[in-house]
Amino acid sequence: MQILILANHSGGLYDFRKDLIAALKQHAEVSVAVPRNDRWDELQALADRVIELPIDRRGMNPARDAKLLGQYRAILKRLRPDLVLTYTIKPNIYGGFAARLAGIPYAVNITGLGTAFESGGLLKKMVTAMYRLSCKKAKTVFFENAENRQIFLDAKIVKERQTCLLSGAGVNLERYAVADYPAGDVVKFLFIGRIMREKGVDELLSAMRRLTGEGVPCTLDMVGGYEEDYGAVVEEAESEGWLKYWGYQEDVRPFIAASHCFVLPSWHEGMANTNLECAASGRPVITSRIHGCMEAVEDGVTGFLCERKNSGSLYAAMKRFCALSMEERRAMGLAGRKRMEAVFDKKRVVEETIKRL
């Protein structure tokens, strides 16, 4: 049996799906078609075949998207896989449609709805129509949160029998083991993610300025590459002394271990893997009260929830955390670990995925 996986980022595919790929290799030969980003060598060592295929991840360009569809069709014709597995929007739409046209069984993974569904209007209508075409004959359409699944059902993109709700990508509980909680009177907040508006970066920087302006002893470490032009904004915050920007890091575990609390005020997510990884490591999490984020947190027990796009709500949650004792913070992190063990164990997610393929 041969399985072909289509995705839009080599690093993301390796980081979040390597356990699934390893499990699939026990039953099949696994090929991957993906842009060459991060983790390229590791992905080549893991998969049986890796095909470099550039993808314009953002925006809709008819010529480029038509070319991508043609490239997918050519790959399918050459490899003739028994099953195609797609991740992220463009591989889902164009890869799924290509598999449908070729008569090859395929499964689609909705890892988030993206800006199109967020903004609405004509773009949302176009993407909805395209998803209907690509998902119509899908064997399974996997979702990482219940809200995304309901949106697809309400829009008649999929039938309920096609759907499978997973606990996100899950979290590897061995790799993200509980890290000793750091001492110190200054609260070290941590953000890991793409530096962009939709991750709540503006709200986070605003909340930090307000906290430090009031004399609350706290700092912020930011880990991740720029998705938008935030260079000058980040440099200004660094000059104020409370922010340290580390750029993209292949291994985020040392940064998690050094932190007291993880913060992700995102606007929309499929399932925020960083929330899961930090909670599994025994760190409290402050995140948005939206599907894809709030599933990881029991409010007031394993962390705090804040309102989306609301710097005041985020500030209040972060200030509330700073007021906790060291022992309360540590206990909150350990409660988060227990939640990850109970709900988000990657081994169970991989097993459930394979059952539906």
Description:
This protein is an alpha/beta fold. The protein is 45% helix and 17% strand. The protein contains 14 helices and 13 strands. The strands form two sheets. The chain has a seven-stranded parallel β-sheet, sandwiched between helices. It has a six-stranded parallel β-sheet with strand order 10-9-8-11-12-13, sandwiched between helices. α9 (231-239) links the parallel β9 and β10. The mean pLDDT is 95.
Overview in brief:
The chain is of the alpha/beta class.
Terminal-residue CA separation: 12 Å
Order of helices and strands: EHEHEHEHEHHEHEEHEHEHEHEEHHH
Structural class comes to alpha/beta
Shape: globular
* Global Rg: 20 Å
Spans where pLDDT lies below 50 across 5 or more residues: none
| Total beta-strand segments | 13
Percent of residues in helical segments? 40-55%
Spatial strand order of the main sheet: 3-2-1-4-5-6-7
Average pLDDT, to the nearest integer? 95
The fraction of residues in strands falls at: 15-25%
For the sheet with most strands, the description reads: 7 strands, parallel
Total number of helices: 14
